[in-house]
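Forwarding these from the shared drive since the link keeps breaking.
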Amino acid sequence: MARRGSYAKGVAKREEILTSALEVIAREGYGRASVRELAEAVGLSQAGLLHYFGTKEELFAAVLRKRDEADLARSEDETGTRSVFEGFRQTIGRNADVPGLIQLYVRLSAEATDAAHPAHAFFTERTRAFRETVAGDIRRMQAEGTARADVDAEQAAMLLLAAADGLQVQWLTDPTIDMAEHVATLLRLLEPPAAPADA
């Protein structure tokens, strides 16, 4: 019984750390949000904080996972549907409000291309899940006639992710870029051509 209570407390503390880290990184930026500052925000030492995650990189990957979960839940609440496209548009639109999290995502995703990196598995799984989910959504839309039938769903899903990742890098360099509008333009390219008007 004591072990179960201890486990529940550990899960709750981990969630508290992730929620606090999301706020601190969004506010301070990835470069200025040190492990020390994150630990102090939840009343732990640096060693105590890393006890819950193992490494700084695993902590940051968990922060991004938590952000993805929050974005998905928010999109479902706002749209009343599990439409990946609508959620994708909304998430990209909100990203400009959290530059620190974009910095974290861009830097960690680049570092995690090394198979030995602690966050490599997170990004590999994230890419696989995104591709699978979005390709499934595109195939459904093709069956409904709301997406171009001549588009390969898997390739389109990868292009959407690549465009979003690339736009985030460009936005960090030039914050005047409207990421949401660029993504909306790309999504419109997947719409079927309008039926020709009767002569």
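-- next protein --
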Amino acid sequence: MIRGIRGAVTVEADRPEEVLAETRALVLEMVNRNNIDPEDVASVIISATHDIKSSFPAKAVRSIEGWTYVPVMCTHEMDVPGALPHCIRVMMHVNTEVQQQEVRHTFLKGAAALRPDLAQGK
């Protein structure tokens, strides 16, 4: 079974080092909370709001040991008026036996406001 595991984080400003560090921290937290082995990851899609342009967040994922060959793609989030700014979202597709309600989605920093019902670790 492939399950989608969601995560999101905000950055204070669009600086390459911050975009990469926060993306890396988010993905590592998602991995830890869900006991994910990169061999079980089918793909990762990362979206960023239009105010993030300084770096490709996917670069952070590829830098994690063991994640070199995991397919990762970046895209821009829809530009909806009033949406949460400076936000990076991750959708990880993972082969797992875990039931849908047992998946631990991860929303960090300001992104906890996106899904307060699922946020675990602000």
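The mean pLDDT is 94. The helical segments are 16-34, 58-62.

- D.
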